[in-house]
Specification:
Layout lengths: L2 E6 L7 H14 L4 E5 L7 H4 L9 H5 L10 E2 L5 E3 L14 H7 L6 E5 L6 H8 L3 E6 L3 H16 L3 E10 L8 H8 L3 E6 L3 H8 L3 H4 L4 H13 L1
Parallel strand pairs: 1-5, 1-6, 2-4, 2-5, 6-7, 7-8
Antiparallel strand pairs: 3-4
């Protein structure tokens, strides 16, 4: 059986895409059969973050009914599979729902990690309804934590289980919300803390997961602890 995990945040820039990419890389290194799906249909980033060349078939083509789901899945050199999104069209009326794409890969991958849109619009809600679990990513700042609360509510309304919160870009500074405050405000456990790390920018320039380019960096250690907790 395939497990579906959505990485979600209602606010852009929280770090959901880097979280999704690095979890996929780490689970792949553990020997799991992983498929990373870019379900951000209006502003997809996974292909750019990983230097994926232009591909002939994307998730958009599948949702438009032009291609089969299997035709939009590619093997990345890191060892995991990717279903990239393509050129977006706002308010596009797709012929297939995202749930049908999820159903197509049941039994064909051990774990599907879904990078959702940085909104709580239709595309994110479709992904949440397909998820067994939703991991919510937030920064230790009030606007991000409030957005995380809205994301939690949407995920729970969709029937998805929330194992916890990943706090990204933590700096332990005086002007940020503490981990204990985040737990109290969101009423969820914090299952991962990813420190602010200058190596992240370098890994993006190298178009590789930071757990590969800088395996001993603070952020990589945070991602490894998160993956070990979730495995």
């Amino acid at each position: 059986m395939t497990k579906f995990i959505v990485i979600a945040s209602a606010k852009g820039g929280a770090g959901k895409t880097t979280t999704a990419i690095n979890l996929a890389a780490l689970f792949g290194a553990m020997g799991k059969n992983i498929t990373l799906i870019d379900a951000d249909l209006t502003a997809p980033n996974i292909s750019a973050y990983l230097g994926l060349p232009d591909v002939p078939v994307t998730l958009h083509d599948v949702l438009r009914g032009k291609n089969r789901t299997s035709e939009a899945i590619y093997l990345h050199p890191s060892g995991f599979k990717i279903m990239p999104a393509g050129a977006s069209m706002l308010n596009e009326d797709f012929k297939k729902p995202f749930s049908s794409v999820a159903l197509d890969i049941v039994g064909k991958t051990e774990l599907a990690i879904i990078d959702s849109s940085a909104t709580l619009g239709r595309e994110t809600l479709d992904a949440l309804r397909s998820a067994d679990e939703t991991i919510v990513v937030a920064n230790p700042e009030m606007p991000s934590v409030l957005d995380a609360k809205r994301t939690i509510e949407a995920a729970e309304d969709s029937g998805s289980i929330i194992p916890g919160i990943v706090v990204n870009r933590a700096r332990n500074g005086k002007n940020e919300i503490s981990i204990s405050e985040i737990k109290s405000m969101l009423q969820k456990p914090v299952i991962g803390i990813i420190p602010e790390d200058k190596s992240m920018r370098l890994s993006l320039l190298m178009k590789q997961p930071i757990v590969h380019t800088h395996p001993n960096s603070p952020a990589s250690k945070g991602f490894k602890e998160l993956a070990n907790m979730l495995k």
